[in-house]
Fold:
Amino acid sequence: MTSNSKNSKILVWDAPVRVFHWLMVFSFAGAYLTAESERWRLIHVTLGYTMGGLVAFRIVWGLVGSRYARFSNFVRGYSAVKKYIRTLIAGNPEHHVGHNPAGAVAIVLLLLSSVLIVSTGWGVYNDLGGNMIEELHELTANFMLLVVIVHIAGVIVSSRLHRENLIRAMVTGEKIAVANHGVTATWRLLAVLIVAVTVGFWYFQWLSVPSI
Structure:
């Protein structure tokens, strides 16, 4: 949905979407930085599995979640992406309350990359597939890093052109748009549950560390 009438602060991103986003940022960054160290292997594996759980949640939430969390709201075809990029280059991009078409492409690529990273990582951890799986795991992780960099650049450019802080919006959940376009439920309890399950899993993994 697009709109040129911005007149009030509305809730766009529910709490589970925001929690998912920042936990994914932390998990991918941590897993990537610990990938080459045997000393930090358990942290790498733990954060990798965390990514897997988060992606599983996001796929479900993309089907049954709030308005702007649903894939049906922001995943568009090639023509919509092409049109948006043209308006972006022209310096007068279409305004979308939720994810814009270019951002949607990045999100889909990040989710698919995460699935492949976690599945190949599981194979590497369990000594399955040999070097081929390990190389695919590393290649996909590097591809995801590239997508992340492009995504961040896109967020910065879009924030500047739209004159709205998209990073802050993913913290507060709020954007400026037509009043009746916002979501009504924050789903805070679900967000708290996601954090609790994640921290609980990390604690369980920590307990599995052998005492010296």
The mean pLDDT is 91.
